[in-house]
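User: Please predict the structure of the protein below. I'd like the answer in structure-token form so I can feed it into my own downstream comparison script.

Assistant: Understood. Taking the following sequence of 87 residues as input:
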Amino acid sequence: MNFFTSNLKAIILSVVVIGIVLLVVKNYKKIKQFLTEVKQELEKVSWSTREELIGSTVVVITITAITAVFIGIIDLFLSKILSVMFK
């Protein structure tokens, strides 16, 4: 019993690894087919150029900053209004 309790983590890890290996072996054909189909689909993807990616990133960061400032100003005004109302 002492061996079991002192090595419980190793035993659980071994059981999990054996289970994963058995699942992979059992479903090898399905996994291989899935990965093949994923590769085929990724070849169809139209990837953005570096310039398009940089331009889109600048737009997202700019809009996020503008939105943050807008929400901050609204929050400031509402805080002032509520502090005056509840004094």
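That's the full token string. Helices lie at 2-6, 8-26, 28-44, 50-85.
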